[in-house]
Amino acid sequence: MRILLAFLVALAVTLLLTPYVKKLGMKLGVYDQPDARKVHKGAVTRMGGIGIYAGFLAGLLVYGNFSQPILGLLISGTMVVAVGFYDDVRGISPKMKLLGQMAAASVFVGFGVRLEFLTNPFSGNLIDLGFWGLPITLFWLIGVSNAVNLIDGLDGLAGGISAIAALSLAVVSLAKGFYAAAAPSPWFWWPV
Asked: What are the pLDDT tens digits along the chain (192 aa)?
């Protein structure tokens, strides 16, 4: 029940704040103009993710689980949002953005989150990653962040794919009884 309440609070905060953040972005001049490479016809704000991240934070506050991995998620997620916001407002080089992603992924891993095994899809056997779990986790976190960023050129595509992935992770986590993993999943719908 607590997960459902947290989800509803996160959804409500996101739906209420995102339009205001969008207006603020337009007022502050933090928007993207259409050009030959873009699909949108008019100016589109770059700050919508702030409202979505606020919903994520509200949902986690209601859920109330502040375990070490969740704290790592909050800190590293805030770092990613800060880098993305700075990039939207001022613009930073791809190298600096990558360094920010590496720092955020390192913080997340530093809080004890890492891949320990993979499942062989053909046999179902577990493959113990041992030492390789750490670099594979970092590579995966940075790689997925950049993959979502690359598909962000078409309005709604990155958000839609992220929503499908997040809801799928939430359903699988709930089915397996991993409630702490299921709780934040639906709120990471939007890449920043």
From this structure: 777 788 888 888 888 888 888 888 888 877 777 666 666 666 777 777 788 888 888 888 888 878 888 899 899 999 998 998 888 788 899 999 999 999 999 999 999 989 899 888 898 899 999 999 999 999 999 998 888 877 766 666 777 787 788 788 878 888 888 776 666 654 444 333
What pTM was computed for the model? 0.80
Q: Across-strand partners of 128?
A: 117
Whole-number Å distance between alpha carbons of 184 and 59: 8
What DSSP designation does 133 have?
Answer: H
CA 136 – CA 117 distance, rounded (Å): 10
What is the residue-wise DSSP string for 66-110? --HHHHHHHHHHHHHHHHHHHHHHT---HHHHHHHHHHHHHHHHH
* Chain centroid to CA 35: 27
Burial zone of 95 (CB within 10 Å; 0-12 exposed, 13-18 middle, 19+ buried): exposed
13's enclosing H/E stretch is helix 2-28
CA distances from 73 to 16, 29, 61, 151 (A): 24, 30, 13, 23
